Amino acid sequence: WHEIVNDVVGGQPIVVSFCPLTGTGLVFNGQGDDGNRITCGVSGLLFNNNLIMYDRRDNATLYPQMIHTSIDGSIGSELELMPVIETTWRFWKQLYPNSKVVSVRAGTYSSGRYTQYPYGSYRDFTQGPNFASFPALEANPTAQFFPPKTITLGIRFGEKAKAYPFPIMGEEAVINDTFEGTDLVVVFYEQEQYAVPFSREFNDQILTFEKVASTDQAYPFLMRDNETGTVWNLKGEALSGTFQGRTLTPIASHNGFWF
What we know:
By secondary structure, the chain is an all-beta fold. Helices cover 3% and strands 37% of the residues. Strands 1-2-3-7 form a 4-stranded antiparallel beta sheet, with no helix packed on it. It has a 4-stranded antiparallel beta sheet with strand order 15-16-17-18, with no helix packed on it. A 3-stranded antiparallel beta sheet has the order 4-5-6, with no helix packed on it.
């Protein structure tokens, strides 16, 4: 019902956006290059089922959420995508027990509205997009690899994108990868729908990670880098070893339906 929250967290202005039709929750930097605050609203338009936001600085510039490059209007820029963790409410509370939570009363609707899903059976992963116009999926053989609404982690650098569909990553995974010149590791925990990429470039070296058993009840497994033996948790925090107390750099990304 809500789809966009303009907020400030820890002094950082942010624009939190969620499109229920594409299953995409993206967080953007709410501080513009010109120093002005960026706030966005819901335009009511869609592009390939995806939410199109509008910029309240001119009430005209539009941003298709997943592309987040301005179209129309007077503001010619791209919103800066920020790293985000998407997971179950249970696991989030475990990772960040002192979180504040946006109130259901913060929006236009009554709190009771948020207990109802507005799109009927739309979330049935076996169904196609079935809402707005979209390209024929049959024209792209890659589209047939998974059911249309399979949850997928996506990373994009410029015009290049890479997908990590949840079903092929198993129950627990630590995936060392390189994409468009960026060395990264994807940490995946199926039970809590948790998939987060971090940069493997750290302290002027490229680290290679492996999954190790966890001694911390908050995490089902931990990571260890082969270069220094440092042990890291699933938030990218070094628990012991050479880099204890330091944190890996998360990579901006988001989940979305496969289609």
